[in-house]
Amino acid sequence: MIIHGIKVTGITSSSKKVKTGYGFVALKGEKHDGNAYIDEAIRNGAAIIFTESNITHKDVPIIKVKDARETLAELCNRFYNYPSDKLKIIGVTGTNGKTTTTNMIYEILRNYGMSVGLIGTLCIKINDRLYESNYTTPLAEEIYHYIAKMVEEKVKVLVMEVSSHGLKTNRVHGIEFDIAIHTNIERDHINFHKTFDDYLQSKKKLFDGLENGKIGIINIDNQHGLRLLEGNHNIVIITYGLNTKATITASAIDSDETTAFNYCLQRGITSISGVEIEPFEYPIKLPLAGKHNIYNALSAITCGLLLDMPIASIAKQVKGFKPISRRMEVIYDKEFKIIDDFCHNPASYEAVLGTIQTMEYNSLHIINAIRGNRGVDINKENAEVLKQWGEILNVKNLYITSSRDVCGPLDEVTSEERDGFLEVFSNTTIPVRYEEKLQEAIDRALSNMKDRDLLLLLGPQGMDKGKDICIRLLKKNKHDYTTVPYIVHDYKENLVPIEF
């Protein structure tokens, strides 16, 4: 690629990854300023620098740009010869449900025989090969690298989780989405967005970027869903939900530890290729619990239809869908049961605990990891929901932990976050115990489990090691942990390291 007469052999925002001939884009982050690393980038061989600051250098041209993050995406898009134009792209955004929905879409399409890619929280997939992913929505240079790789591998459809952070920081700038899906929007990420409106407007960018005739799939039951469409009157809108006014809804719902319902297309829709799909109703069996997973399935099934899959084939793939790691994941089910979930905001606690209410068990025990480095407010809000549901469900033991033994600096719980969380439980009927370390909390909880009891492992990063600790302790205590009745998506053993 030639820029200002200079042959550029690569683009990066990391000075450590610069090689001879690279273009270096200096990004200003919350904690680090890329301008401080320009000299290092030049020493490593940078041929040209892009920055928002007024900087000069005697040996290397420095180009001042208005928006460095936007410039990074544009340069990467150009460097890889506009790869997103060469495949169909489905973007999924929302506070909760992105990971389950994108993986369900991927499995529906892949098992039907399509060549499919996925970019998301758990990993990056190119057909059946798995790569590490450090972010829900990776940096622009990583996104474009992997999209280009997908084009090389003849991928026809890319399914992507699109976070509010990724949208606000222009990581997906320049990507032409064919379908945009909204799962839900609830209060979250207040440490980054500061206001709910900023959070909402960041999500809205996915739909604002849709070209004429592209498709927006909106959860009409979510009060903020239709706001995403304000000002965009030239896209095709498909609504879904349990609301009878939605284009797509569910009827005859039967849910306990699995779910059955009828997928109802109430008004005709047109597939991406132009095929007219008339209204119909079809029975669906979903191996997941909870109303929130009905929403996930409705949008995923709709994507299959829009890509010309027959409903019978879609239903077959949904029935065989394998539960996702840390999404209502059953990790032990014998004399008692253990379920692990990545609860991280009030809506996700509501969804999980509301689902637990429909299950049968003797006594309920909960271990909850406090959300570290995300602020006092979100932790108090999480605690309020946990307290309300804990009293409704008559929780026998609640263990709260800071997970000091497993959390890194990015997710370390502050004393303010800990105290704010615990303060909510200062007046409750629930037996509450605080443990600094996750292993101690799990060890204590397991020692109190009786026949047909249920143990919930709840929380985001602070609970990521919970399953491994549980399995180790179960094995130590002579439990047969191999009897888990589900095949889960546990990618760790098969991941290929990030390539750059």
UniProtKB/TrEMBL annotation:
The keyword Membrane does not apply. Keywords: Cell cycle, Cell division, Cell shape, Cell wall biogenesis/degradation, Peptidoglycan synthesis. Residues 7-80 form the Mur ligase N-terminal catalytic domain. GO terms for biological process: cell division; cell wall organization; peptidoglycan biosynthetic process; regulation of cell shape. It is found in: Cytoplasm. Pathway: Cell wall biogenesis; peptidoglycan biosynthesis. One of its GO terms (cellular component) is cytoplasm. It comes from the Bacteria. Pfam families: Mur_ligase, Mur_ligase_C, Mur_ligase_M. Residues 326-459 form the Mur ligase C-terminal domain. One of its GO terms (molecular function) is ATP binding. InterPro entries: Mur-like_cat_sf, Mur_ligase_C, Mur_ligase_C_dom_sf, Mur_ligase_cen, Mur_ligase_N, MurE/MurF_N, UDP-N-AcMur-Glu-dNH2Pim_ligase. Its main location: cytoplasm. Residues 92-303 form the Mur ligase central domain. Belongs to the MurCDEF family. MurE subfamily. NCBIfam families: murE (TIGR01085). This is UDP-N-acetylmuramyl-tripeptide synthetase. It comes from Alkaliphilus pronyensis. The lineage of its organism: Bacteria, Bacillati, Bacillota, Clostridia, Peptostreptococcales.
